[in-house]
Amino acid sequence: MSIIKKLASQTAVYGLSSIFGRFLNYLLVPLYTYYFTAAEYGVVSEFYAYAGFFSVLLLFGFETGYFRFRDKEHTGRDVAYSTALLFVVLINIGFFALILLVNTQLSAALNYANHPEYVLCFSLILILDAVAAIPFARLRAENKAFRFAGIKIIEILITVLLSLFFIIYCPKAYAKNPESWIALIYNPAIGIGYIFIANLMASVFKFLLLAPQLSGLAWGFDRVLFGRMVRYSLPMVVIGFAGIINEMLDRALLKYLLPYDVQTNMKMLGIYSACYKLSILMSLFIQAFRYAAEPFFFAYADKSDARKVYAVVLKFFVIFCVFIFLLVTLFIDFFQYFVGDEFRAGLEVVPILLMANLCLGIYINLSIWYKLTDRTLLGALVSLAGAALTIVLNLCWIPLLGYVGSAWATLACYASMAIASYLLGQKYYPVDYEVKRVLAYIGLGIGLYFAHGQLLMLITWQPWLLASELMLLYVLITALFEGRQLVGANSFARGE
């Protein structure tokens, strides 16, 4: 099997499971947006925004650090794994103790004094997910994609089933008979808190499934190795934290920067967050690719043709991402029904956010230069620059453009980071990327998107038919230019 096909197959396993699992999870978006108001959904969005920041701090970059220092020859006693796991467990024990100490004050500061359980519940979710990340990393490193995917799917299935139970079944059963057994587990006053409870229960079950992996704690703690891992991983914390700023800061700031009252601001936050979910297909592919690509890039780095393979990977990654961009934007009349009617006012941000995610995916591809050359500090500087740009643009554009300004800030940030990473990569780890062709495919996708809008005003075709024709045109163009090259790349990788 060729190298490209091997990476594609790993991406497919992660991708299909991730798509299936996330699709189930994605079904919760209509559930939330049809059963809760935009302001209530804004509360959920705010907590998930905060969660992104803490998830980076609670993992401390040791997921990537484990990939870098894991013992490939003696997997029966991987001290890098036990060292990373012990450290992450200790960090999270300390975090939980701190939350217990300040929960009342913190809940009041966030304007949730009546619901301190929100903070406590979400903290437990963060802790369980952070500790589970190291066992998951080991499954990825050992190419146990099916076990990895199976546990992820089970977690999401439990989240979906419990959400349906708490949000649909329990309110109806309670309204019919408040004195029944349902009153023992359901309290209407908790409201959206049941979203957090469902997530927490699913995280607990996931953690139990990963319990066999915790036996690796017995392999001990290596202080010398720990020092090396810290020096390598600390810049990854900066990179991860900056990445979360780029991804989540807009949802944390909208509540405070939009020029309306608090209730209206929360409504706008809910609308923006729900429409952000419509870029889920792009996010799914990028996440699946990242799961497969990160260990692949490290494992293949010593091969003589590594840089050629990395260039081919980026090109076909972009081709597929542009396909997803067109699929969602050209068929937006269908995808809009995944959110409630109140939330569709924000559909204009969807193309912007899809293109932003495409740029993020390009940046992930290009970031191999600092990971393979151990220049994680320079990588951190790129991420910090992107984070600074995100902060400045959100502060400037949200008061003027509302949540649309947040979407443009996200695109500007990821595009700038991709450009900076490419320029630095050409200096420290040169790869002959097909830049002109990559940009041409992105331009083609944007051109077809705008052509669709113009043609709808000029011809009487059904929107879905015109969208299908433009999608077919894109596929034919890419097949014309890349079909023969793909065959050639596979032949080269097989040594033919």
| Strand percentage | under 5%
**Main sheet: strands, sense, barrel:** none
Helix/strand order, N-terminal first = HHHHHHHHHHHHHHHHHHH
The low-confidence runs, each spanning 5 or more residues with pLDDT under 50, are 489-496
Number of strands: 0
Tell me the radius of gyration: 23 Å
Helix count?
19
- Could you report the average pLDDT, rounded to the nearest whole number? 83
Span from first to last CA? Answer: 12 Å
Q: What is the 3D form?
A: globular
Structural class: mainly alpha
In which range does the helix fraction lie?
Answer: over 70%
Explain the overall architecture.
With 496 residues, the protein is mainly alpha-helical. It contains 19 helices and no strands. The longest helix has 35 residues. It starts with a helix and ends with a helix. 43% of the residues are buried.
Features:
496 residues, mainly alpha, disordered C terminus
List the helices and strands and how they pair.
Blueprint: H1 3-26, H2 28-35, H3 38-59, H4 62-69, H5 79-109, H6 116-141, H7 145-176, H8 193-209, H9 223-257, H10 262-276, H11 280-300, H12 306-330, H13 332-335, H14 350-366, H15 368-372, H16 376-401, H17 403-428, H18 435-458, H19 463-494
